[in-house]
Amino acid sequence: xxxxxxxxxxxxxxxxxxxxxxxxxxxxxxxxxxxxxxxxxxxxxxxxxxxxxxxxxxxxxxxxxxxxxxxxxxxxxxxxxxxxxxxxxxxxxxxxxxxxxxxxxxxxxxxxxxxxxxxxxxxxxxxxxxxxxxxxxxxxxxxxxxxxxxxxxxxxxxxxxxxxxxxxxxxxxxxxxxxxxxxxxxxxxxxxxxxxxxxxxxxxxxxxxxxxxxxxxxxxxxxxxxxxxxxxxxxxxxxxxxxxxxxxxxxxxxxxxxxxxxxxxxxxxxxxxxxxxxxxxxxxxxxxxxxxxxxxxxxxxxxxxxxxxxxxxxxxxxxxxxxxxxxxxxxxxxxxxxxxxxxxxxxxxxxxxxxxxxxxxxxxxxxxxxxxxxxxxxxxxxxxxxxxxxxxxxxxxxxxxxxxxxxxxxxxxxxxxxxxxxxxxxxxxxxxxxxxxxxxxxxxxxxxxxxxxxxxxxxxxxxxxxxxxxxxxxxxxxxxxxxxxxxxxxxxxxxx
Length: 496
Description:
33 strands; 3 domains; disordered N terminus; Hypothetical Protein Tm1070, Chain: A; mainly beta; Immunoglobulin-like; disordered C terminus
């Protein structure tokens, strides 16, 4: 079992990586985090292989004067300063120890080696080691190095709760990778089992470190696991992997894991996961306070109904006449006809899933629905009847959850009232009055929902991407039926 201490320490440990391969001419050599304190110290070795004297400095750019953190450089207290001078004669090598005074808390930060006026950081050969001391003894030491800059790297992975073993991975882009203002290329990680079967893939935006069991909790986090992780990106990156095994008494062993640099650059931007999981929460705010004009005695909303689809189909929109499915939903709260229209689109290859959820028995209240969506069908249409009403409803149409090459993490949309154009009633409790001929769907602003110019929203839809399925039995059933069902409802009086 991986202890809480290890979960806190290893991500810091893994961020201690860097080699001179990261150097760029006339640029500082940047090492993307060191960790000191709590028993850790970093030993850096620098060699000047040139025939000229080298002059520059070792800096902690995110640790300046007044930060309050204490640090030692070769035993000298440098608290309040963010740099230490560095002078190397030709062919000379220096040893540098970065540590913290006894009793100081563990902390991490970026450090870099900068050349002076006539010196370039790219000329130095630099290696460094992480040491862990416990009760005055050197418990463990590991030399830390990164893979050369690459676009595809494969790493062996072992996770074993029985032996307290885990594999950690850290990723870092080279300094100044990409053009100014350009979004850095994301990473794509694919998990393979020991037989070479692909189990899962996740996009990764972060530069940093995690355990394999944290990248892939559904597979590498569920017991004994041996396999590999393939990391890919359109932009070059460096990667470090360490194998950690915990011992008794707070001790542990760290071992570098060799990474295989694979040829080639991905032919296209790393693919995002082909599917994503979302929860949509319908939070109804409609009340006598928000809409006091003729407010009904039994305010509620019909069950959610809609689907996931592509741009080749559209189920409703302002200026369009309501389909039979939208008419039935807006007038009676019925779901069947609109569900049938989505199924027809599924048959034509323009939609993928029917979304069907519960209603809100009394407003204000809320209801949630979880569903899966895919890259080929990234749009959502979802509606609910305002009840009682002649043919008024709220909803979203053609909402894309795929933006800028990735799945949206969260989005909240206000829900304004619409008139389906199929009933001519003018109040919440108007008797049936079919509109002949039907009129186009339009946004409502007239009383009793608005003041003739605007109307306040009746609630919100919030779409939130989920990291894992919350309700596996209902999700499994949904895959077989093509429909995604309601999960939970809440309102002051419960469903009505």
